[in-house]
Amino acid sequence: MIAIKNGPYKSKNSSSNERWFVVLDNGIGTTRARWIMMNFLHTNYIPRRLHVHHINGVPSDDRIENLELLLNSDHTKKHNPKNYRYGVSCSDDPIINLIYDGRKDNV
């Protein structure tokens, strides 16, 4: 089991969402969900390109059966609609889509 030096404590992440955090014995801070997944997998490290996803969508529900590891790209697809591109939802308006697609043709 990976030991906790401090926590768990609630704080806001970079997206201003409230999450549970822990500080590991090595001084590195991480989310409680990531720490739980690390213990479940018996590893001291999960690459940053792998995200811990809450299956039921409740970020405070850190039960192992509610957690799954996803690649960053797959995690983004789960949380965003199919027409989500470049950080904004695309419109049905072709002019708006051209702006967000970065294309200058057909204007």
Which regions are unreliable across 5 or more consecutive residues at pLDDT < 50?
100-107
Beta-strand percentage? 25-35%
Overall morphology: globular
Question: What's the average pLDDT?
Answer: 78
Largest sheet, spatial ordering of strands:
1-2-3
Q: What radius of gyration results from the CA coordinates? A: 18 Å
Query: Could you give a short account of the major beta sheet?
Result: 3 strands, antiparallel
In sequence order, what are the helices and strands, one letter per element?
A: EEEHEEHEEH
**Count of structural domains:** 1
Please estimate the helix content.
10-25%
How would you classify the helix and strand content by structural class? alpha+beta
DSSP helical segment count: 3
Structure summary, number of beta strands? 7
- Termini separation comes to 59 Å
3D structure, described in words:
- The chain is of the alpha+beta class and 107 residues long.
- The chain has one domain (4-81).
- It is built from three helices and seven strands; from the N terminus they run βββαββαββα.
- It has helices at 32-40, 72-79, 94-101, and strands at 4-12, 18-24, 29-31, 50-54, 67-71, 84-85, 88-89.
- A three-stranded antiparallel beta sheet has the order 1-2-3.
- A hairpin with a 4-residue loop joins β2 and β3.
- The radius of gyration is 18 Å and the shape is globular.
- Residues 100-107 have low confidence and may be disordered.
Short description:
With 107 residues, the protein is an alpha+beta fold. The protein has three helices and seven strands; from the N terminus they run βββαββαββα.
